[in-house]
Amino acid sequence: MQEKGTISIHTENIFPIIKKFLYSDNEIFLRELVSNAVDATQKIKRLAQLGQYAGELGDTTVKVNFDKDKKTITVSDSGLGMTAEEIKKYINQIAFSGAAEFVEKFKEAKDANEIIGKFGLGFYSAFMVADKVEIQTLSYHDGAAPASWTCDGSTEFEIGPGTRTTRGTDVILYVNSESEEFLEKFKLQEILDKYAKFLPVPIQFGTKTESVEDGEDEEGKKKWKSVEVDNIINDTTPIWTKSPNELNDEDYLKFYKELYPFSEDPLFWIHLNVDYPFNLTGVLYFPKVKNEFELQRNKIKLFSRQVFITDEVKDIVPEFLMLLHGVIDSPDIPLNVSRSFLQADGNVKKINNYITKKVADKLSELFKKDRQAYEAKWNDIGLFVKYGMISEDKFYEKGKEFTLLKNTDGAFFTLNEYSDKVKAIQTDKNDQTIYLYATNVSKQDAFIQSANKKDYDVLVMDSPIDSHFIQHLEGKLEKTSLKRVDSDVAEKLIQKDDGYANLLTEEQSTKVKEVFEKAIANKTYSVEVESLSPEELPVTVTMDEFMRRMKDMAQTGGGGMSFYGSLPDSYKVAINGNHGVIDKILKAENEEEQAKLAKQAFDLALLAQGLLTGKDLTDFVKRSVGML
Length: 628
Ligand code: ADP
Known about the structure:
- By secondary structure, the protein is an alpha+beta fold.
- The chain has 21 helices and 22 strands.
- GO terms for molecular function: ATP binding; ATP hydrolysis activity; ATP-dependent protein folding chaperone; unfolded protein binding.
């Protein structure tokens, strides 16, 4: 007997709303229907295991078919099926906690996922692409009768006897005219690849051609023939569902290639596997990155029970680990709620901490196990570690054990090792230990040499993240500050009491200052006369550490730093009053000669800093030749 009824929701006809609202990601209808089919299949398997179903399980492959002429898409399973009563219960009474709440939520909701999952509307997403939806189903219960249900997207449905002769369910979509794109093989294949590639039950989508052996020809060579075989689109046991001790490096690398066919092999990986207090599995890979500008976020794919959900894992994975690749699978992550809720969610926080800890443990293990290999990888890992140190305090605490500093000789030190190395020599009169660093080893060579001459060590800090990292280290390390090696003359980088006596009288100093200011004639350079070792250069041009650092940070996007970025460069010109050249300038015949010598000494300093370019450089060379 055909029975008619009304789907029990209290809001007036929600389908037009769902349809319109969800239009943007309507492809997820297939994810929802295939997931339902997989669930139904797993349930019958479970019942069989528990001895509550005694019949044959048979072939439990889920099948997706389409018919371009009839404009239908059918998802079929051999799952547990439904009786007419169950259809009424599960399909007709849309499971949401109240019409009022629903109406509220769909106004706020930003995407289809939010609303579909929250209100158990998975099945109804079919109406995003279909004018009419039909269910043909036969329950596994002994003596159950096949049942059918059809609905044209209004709140009216028809329920009655069905045509299915074997256990399971067909969901048939009569695709609407705006959604005919889904009646293309490649389109359906693409959606299945995206969402269903790792589902736990085999999914068949049509057939594919394969070459198989076909005996031998007269010469004994193998013969091949083409056959049509089922096109199974998924891998039912992806590596994250297995235990790490069942897997070898090749398995991990193969899976990586499957996920990112165009990427270089990863550096290493971490297998995540926890079931308490939340459930999470996954494999995270450390990619090999050539430079920071190549970094790609959103490379981690998020799954829930092997169903692909999204590759926007922001909030679930700590910010600094967004640079990793791989998969995370957790049924405990609320996938369908708003971002603000996600941030406040206790599980999400725990997951965040867990991942941070696992990554730190792995790095620590690699460091301890084979320091040399770890050092060799530091160029690639360093970025993650520094980023992590800056952004997560918890990570800093662990990371300080395996964070490396590299000096200009290419030697690596942990933070503690480095402190021990330089403390004795590089502590100033105020008991501050000064770490010197270079951001460009070849450009700052003259300064590195001067520092080395004083037995100072110089670190290499040449990546964009380093300006932030330096700032952070200073905040963390006790009684330690960092100075770029060219931020002052070597003599003054680390101020000790053993200053040199000034060989110039005050009058002479003023005169020298005047001569240089006139010769330079540029306000961005402020001239100071200092008493340095006669061994030091006669003139040194430096940029103040603070100013330079602020500008560096502004460049790599430090919050609120843009003010500094807009300031013009300003340099300090240190004249070494104790150098013979200065004496020579003072004793020169006339002002013209003085200016010439001063200009020459100044240009020489600019040259050492890499600041002398273009016409100034050409003029300098010409003048120098003239002096020979
Ligand atoms: P959810 O899957 O979130 O519960 P759905 O709207 O997708 O919400 O489905 C509602 C219910 O309908 C399911 O919980 C299940 O009981 C039933 N159902 C849907 N599809 C099938 C199917 N292919 N086989 C058996 N039962 C199904």
